[in-house]
Structure formats: C-alpha cells, structure tokens
Design a protein that fits this description.
Layout lengths: L2 E3 L18 E3 L4 E3 L15 H5 L6 E3 L7 H11 L4
Bound molecules: iron/sulfur cluster (2 copies).
The site of one iron/sulfur cluster has 14 residues, from α1.
Length: 84
Amino acid sequence: MALLITEKCINCDMCDPECPNEAITFGEEIYEIDPDKCTECVGHYDKPTCQSVCPITHCIIIDPDNVESEDLLLEKFVKLQGLA
Ligand code: SF4
Ligand code: SF4
C-alpha cells in the first residue's frame, strides 16, 4: 500500500530526501506522497524509510484509499525502475 502523510506533519523535510522513489514532495501546506510512486519502500528497504525518519509519531500512516498487496508493490517497484 502507499503511505499517507497526515496533518500532523510539521514540514521538517526529513522524509523528502530519504524517499528512494522520489514520491514525496511539498504540497499546498504539508508534504505529500504520490501513491503512484510509493512502494512502501518495497524493493529498496525492509521498512518504509519515511516513517523511520519522521520525528512525529503516527504522522505517516497507511493510506486507506491505496491498499496494495506486497506483489503489487513489487510490480510497481519494477515499473518505476524501468525494469519491465
Ligand atoms: S514508504 Fe518509501 S517509497 Fe513510500 S513515500 Fe515513504 S520513503 Fe517513499
Ligand atoms: S518527516 Fe514527517 S513531519 Fe517531517 S516533513 Fe516528513 S512527514 Fe512531515
């Protein structure tokens, strides 16, 4: 599934440079994750790195509107890397 940045975000900019898929950008008021680019870090890391670096508890959550299986995330990773 893709992850979602909630309004708890304090715009600290810790997550943006750490995303391996360049899925995080600054939106209108807070940072946002592009669900088409977020693989939940599948293919890159064991855990979502944005969640690991975010200093705010439960700021970045699973996006309830973009729930995907591990297989779909891996497929997305392959496409994003230009491997398919
Ligand atoms: S989970 Fe990984 S791929 Fe998704 S936005 Fe966070 S750092 Fe980027
Ligand atoms: S690390 Fe967390 S608080 Fe900082 S910009 Fe990213 S989502 Fe917002």
